[in-house]
Design a protein that fits this description.
alpha/beta; two-stranded antiparallel ribbon; 10 helices; about 35% helix; about 15% strand
Amino acid sequence: MKYLKKALLLSLLLISHVSFGQVAEKALRLFIIGNSFSQNATAYLPSLVKENNQQLVVGRAELGGHSLQQHWEYAEAAEANPEDPKGKPYNGKSLRMLLSAGTWDVVTMQQFSYLSADLESYSPYAEKLYNYIKSLQPNAKILLHQGWAYRSDAKKFGRVAPEQLAKNQEEMWQKSRAAYHAVAKQLKVGLIPVGDAFNAVATGTEYRFTKDMNFDYDHPVSPNLPIQTNSLNMGYYWKDNALVFDPNHANEAGRYLGSLIWYALLFKESPEKLQYVPKEVPAGFAAYLRSVAAKTVKDL
């Protein structure tokens, strides 16, 4: 777990504003309760919004590596004692303080990726957070952000039950997908199917990632890297003369795909019409990702 914690980003703790035009009242107000995966999956959302001259206000309660249970326990601590520092982990603010900053149209939450395939880990925290959000923002639409499975060459995968890990990417995806759908059905909320889109790419034919079997992983030489074409995850990279492996977090292509899904769900528009592409993502791959995003949202 140590390498995960080091790789996870610090939370974006302050409410950020991404608005375009003069009429702020027309902005979609989005509040995200999550962790580094929600940060990854919305990285290019502002750029996509800007392209179409739309307006978006984003509030964030994101802490790297955090689960639904941890977010709920912070809220619970703050409710018991508003002055308790344990209840104000978001840059000195509580979840109540952030959620009460205006009216939010959409509020999202997600499970920590390592626990996402373990249905038991959602209970009772997803329901408690749902009820808490509704008590503060009764008119908000609540959505579950579905995370993705780790890359196929990961050395270990997420938990599917206490003391039991998924055997591979496929099992992690199937069980995390089942868990998210079960919780969404229980709470009667919608899903942001980023995990489904990642899996569609991972199991596709034209742009599927495959591990480079010719690279010497045991004796790497800087700055050489294995071929990682079509990866949606960070994978291997050099840092401080050490070869780092992060098969979990999204790279620029993965962030682009996630942002396309979020955009399509929030603004009810096809991502295939979008022109913006991060400079790190090849044009052909980007076009394919837009088509995957469109199909994933359509099939939801």
